[in-house]
C-alpha cells in the first residue's frame, strides 16, 4: 500500500501557473510509476501525465504537452506537477496515482490521493 496526499491547488487567472505536489508514504515510493489525472464536474477522470519509477520515461496527454511538467524526488517521496499557461478548461480536481507501469487509464492505478482543486478563471 502507498498513501498519497495532493496539495498546491487553488484559484488562478488564465495564463497563470501552479505547482502541485503529491506526498507519498513509505520507502516503496521509488518502486512505483506515478501519474497525474484530472476530473471536471460531469466528466471522466482523464490522464494528464505520467512518469516511470526512475524518472526515465515520461508520457504526456496532448493537452499537457508544452505547458505541464512532471517530476519526482524519490529521496523526498514526492511527485510534482508544474502547470504553466493555464486555461479555463484546465479547471478540475487533480489527483496523483501510483501504478506498476505508467497508468494512462484510471483502472490501471493501484492507489489514489484525495485530489486538489485547480480553478482557472477567465
Low-confidence stretches: none
Structural class: mainly beta
Which whole number gives the mean pLDDT?
Answer: 96
Q: Globular, elongated, flat, extended or rod-shaped: what is the shape? A: globular
Number of helices: 0
Q: How many angstroms separate the termini?
A: 40 Å
Strand content: over 45%
Task: Give the H and E element order.
Answer: EEEEEEEEEEE
Major sheet size, sense and barrel closure: 7 strands, mixed
* Rg over C-alpha atoms, rounded to the nearest angstrom: 13 Å
- Share in helix: under 10%
Strand runs, count: 11
List strands and helices in order, with pairings:
Elements: E1 4-7, E2 10-13, E3 18-24, E4 33-39, E5 46-51, E6 58-60, E7 68-73, E8 78-83, E9 92-99, E10 111-112, E11 116-121
Parallel strand pairs: 2-11
Antiparallel strand pairs: 1-3, 3-8, 4-5, 4-9, 5-6, 7-8, 9-10, 9-11
What does this structure look like?
It is a single chain. With 122 residues, the protein is mainly beta. It is built from no helices and eleven strands. β4 and β5 form a beta hairpin. The model has no long low-confidence stretch (mean pLDDT 96).
Which terms would index this structure?
122 residues, mainly beta, seven-stranded mixed sheet, globular
Outline of the structure:
The protein is 0% helix and 48% strand. The chain has 122 residues and is mainly β.
Amino acid at each position: 500500500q502507498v498513501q498519497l496526499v495532493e496539495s498546491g491547488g487553488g484559484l488562478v487567472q488564465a495564463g497563470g501557473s501552479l505547482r502541485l505536489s503529491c506526498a507519498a508514504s513509505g520507502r516503496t515510493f521509488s518502486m512505483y510509476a506515478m501519474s497525474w489525472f484530472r476530473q471536471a464536474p460531469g466528466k471522466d477522470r482523464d490522464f494528464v501525465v505520467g512518469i516511470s519509477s526512475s524518472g526515465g520515461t515520461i508520457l504526456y496527454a496532448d493537452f499537457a504537452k508544452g505547458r505541464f511538467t512532471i517530476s519526482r524526488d524519490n529521496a523526498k517521496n514526492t511527485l510534482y506537477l508544474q502547470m504553466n499557461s493555464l486555461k479555463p478548461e484546465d479547471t478540475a480536481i487533480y489527483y496523483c496515482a501510483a501504478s506498476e507501469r505508467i497508468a494512462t487509464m484510471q483502472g490501471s492505478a493501484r492507489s489514489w490521493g484525495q485530489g486538489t482543486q485547480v480553478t482557472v478563471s477567465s
